[in-house]
Design goal:
This protein is an alpha/beta fold and 255 residues long. It is built from 12 helices and 8 strands. The chain has one domain: Aldolase class I (TIM Barrel). Helix 1 runs parallel beside helix 12, helix 5 runs parallel beside helix 7 and helix 7 packs across helix 9. The protein is globular, with a radius of gyration of 17 Å.
Length: 255
């Protein structure tokens, strides 16, 4: 049985003071929940302060991105060595990174390898844009992204990862995929591709979150799907009470 995993991607929001205030409000709201893994992913500037504020809690910390080299002349980048003292998880290949910063399947793969080398747990984002969906290319695109991300990754390493299926057309639009559609893509395409790359056991072990306009009103319907193991939450993770409600509902449905 895969343990549900709810992670909040704060994107480019929250000053250090605001970030600490958010997790200080969130912490007591979810302190009793043990049946769901919980993480928050603040901006780099707030990682140290948020990690300090969450010590001893049931909330893990993740980063939103990282570079694949350990050190060097890479102005503005953050290495896995800089992150490993602060975070457990790292989001890799988010559609906004692909769209605005030129990330590719190849660079996603390099980052996944670097993260695993340094005992960071990747949350690997995959998903199609609206034009690809309307052209009937969802399976083709998502399969390509999964194959690219896991190139030369061993089965032992692969089971340490999480995949976030985020149809790009649903991110920040208020327009979520239907739960059954998301479940079908995860089962047919993502788990199907993982089974071909590795075996059925690995495909059934890796957790797959849904992401894209997740909120308290729809999280239950996603968690009721057999192949949806949680959510990568964007805007709804920026308020402690809203994010806590999502976590609580996930625990009630699958806990």
């Amino acid at each position: 049985m895969r343990k549900p995993f709810i992670a909040g991607n704060w994107k480019m929001h929250k000053t250090i003071a605001e970030a600490v205030a958010l997790v200080n409000a969130l912490r007591p709201l979810v302190a009793d929940i043990q049946t769901v893994d919980i993480a928050v992913c603040p901006p780099f500037t707030a990682l140290q302060s948020v990690a300090d504020a969450l010590k001893g809690s049931n909330i893990a910390v993740g980063a939103q991105n990282m570079f694949w080299e350990e050190e060097g002349a890479y102005t503005g980048e953050i290495s896995p060595l800089m992150l490993k003292e602060l975070v457990t998880y790292v989001i890799i290949g988010h559609s906004e990174r692909r769209k605005y910063f030129g990330e590719t399947d190849e660079t996603v793969n390099r980052k996944v390898k670097a993260a695993l080398t340094h005992d960071l747990l990747p949350i690997i984002c995959v998903g199609e844009v609206l034009e690809e969906r309307e052209a009937g290319k969802t399976a083709e695109v998502v399969r390509r992204q999964v194959l690219g991300a896991y190139q030369d990754i061993s089965a032992e390493q692969a089971v340490k990862t999480t995949i976030a299926y985020e149809p790009v057309w649903a991110i920040g639009t208020g327009r979520a995929a239907t739960p059954s559609d998301a479940d079908k893509v995860i089962w047919d395409v993502i788990r199907g591709t993982l089974a071909q790359l590795y075996d059925d056991q690995v495909a059934q072990t890796i957790r797959v979150q849904y992401g894209g306009s997740v909120k308290p009103a729809n999280i239950a319907s996603f968690m009721e799907q057999p192949n949806v193991d949680g959510a990568l939450v964007g805007g709804a993770s920026l308020k402690a009470d809203t994010f806590a409600e999502i976590i609580r509902i996930a625990a009630e449905v699958r806990g």
